[in-house]
Write a structure and sequence with these properties.
Elements (H helix, E strand, L loop, with lengths): L5 E4 L13 E7 L2 E6 L2 E6 L3 E4 L6 E5 L14 E4 L6 E3 L7 E2 L17 E2 L4 E2 L1
Parallel strand pairs: 6-11
Antiparallel strand pairs: 1-2, 1-5, 2-3, 3-4, 6-7, 7-8, 9-10
Length: 125
Amino acid sequence: MPELSWARVKTDLHLGLRRGAWYRVIRETGSQVILDVDHRPATILQEYLEFASVRPDRWTIVERPSDVAGAAAGWGQSYGVCPLCTHRASLVHPVVEARCGAAPSGLAGGLCDGGHRAVPGCIES
């Protein structure tokens, strides 16, 4: 694994991470990886994660889990995750464009200005 890398959940397990969101890898300890989750370390088994050497700049489309509750239950079959701030946005298919609706004051680290757009070439599953 590269010295500084990024990881996201590749399974449909409840691990305390947002599905589709990328997290900075702090370090690897055998079969576990320590991630920076909201400026706090979180230890996750390596087998549950997908890795990238640089932080991806594409939105991720996530299939909504069947057991979801709250606001996410009304998002339809899938939703998008902003690559910069991890804000989730409902999507209307086919996806022509999505825009991050996060307010700058509510972001950890201030990465996104709320205007990060997703267009067809900027979306991955």
